[in-house]
Amino acid sequence: MFINFRVIASTFLMIFLAELGDKTQITTFAFASRSKSSLSVFIGASAALITTSLIAVIIGETVGKLVPVKIAKIAAGILFLAFGSLTIFEAVKS
Q1: 32: burial class by Cβ within 10 Å (0-12, 13-18, 19+)?
Q2: Burial of residue 45 (number of CB atoms within 10 Å: 0-12, 13-18, 19+)
Q3: Which of 26, 36, 53, 79 has an alpha carbon within 20 to 30 A of 59's alpha carbon?
Q4: Which residues contact 72 (CB under 8 A, 6 or more apart)?
Q5: Cβ contact 64:72 at 8 Å
Q6: 20-56 residue pLDDT tens
Q7: For 65-82, what is each residue's pLDDT tens digit?
Q8: pTM for this one?
Q9: Exposed, middle or buried: residue 44 (CB in 10 Å: 0-12, 13-18, 19+)?
Q10: Secondary structure letter of residue 25 according to DSSP
C-alpha cells in the first residue's frame, strides 16, 4: 500500500464539493446552532463521516475485486438515478 497524493487530492475535492449543502451539512449546522459545544458537534460529525467513509472504502475495495468495473459503474448510475427519482417524487408529492 502506498500513498497517492493525486488520488487524495481528487477524492478530497470530489467529496468536498458533493457534501456542500447536503443533508449531512445542514444537520450538522442544526446541531451546532443548538449546542453549547461546537467542538463536540465537530468531533461527532467528523467521526461519523470518517466511519461512513471507512465503510464505503472497505465495501468498494471488496466489490472492486469481485465485480467488473463496467458493471459497478452501471449499478452506481442506476442507484443515483433511483435516489434522484425518489427525491423528485417526494418533492412533488409534498
Answers
A1: middle
A2: middle
A3: 26
A4: 63, 64
A5: yes
A6: 878 888 999 999 999 999 999 999 999 999 999 999 9
A7: 999 989 989 998 999 999
A8: 0.69
A9: middle
A10: H
